[in-house]
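This section describes the prediction task in plain terms. A model, or a person checking by hand, is given the sequence of a single protein chain and must write out its three-dimensional structure as a string of tokens. No templates, partner chains or ligands are provided. The sample shown here is typical of the held-out split.
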Amino acid sequence: MSWTRQITSTVLRNAVSPASSRSPARTTCMAFLGGPRHISPRFSHTTTTPIGAYVHSIFADVLDGKEQQAEKLSPAQIWAERSAKLDLPPPPDTWTGRRIPVENGSLQVAFSKLNRRIRSNNMFKEVRLASRHEKRGDKRARLSSERWRKRFADEVRKKVQLVSTIRRRGG
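The expected answer:
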């Protein structure tokens, strides 16, 4: 187990059920968070790293002497308090990325956004292609042709831009 995972699990275990100040878990937690370093000085830099600052901000109430209050709370209450402090987006579900918000009751704007997203993702083409079976060789040839056309169009676009910049310069 890597030392970061070991320390993080120790910090989490210690935060849920704070131990006495002399226990090894408490000492490791303090060393990880930049407190007294009884275990190893190699963890002294961790409060400057993002994970160290994150863990330090979440578990600061345990380190500030509020351990007696934390002992009275159940683990579920402790996690509820800490998760309330975090500003996290809702967890992903089946419809994440598929929703189009309807703002101010304007369905026309929502439908235009939906249509734009459908066109940008080539969904009509995918539905048309999925309606019938395509042989492997034909699919390979079609994809190769599409790649070639895309590269060719990019090269033509670059040449047209080059010619237009040369004309603007008067060359």
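For orientation: Residues 102-132 form one domain.
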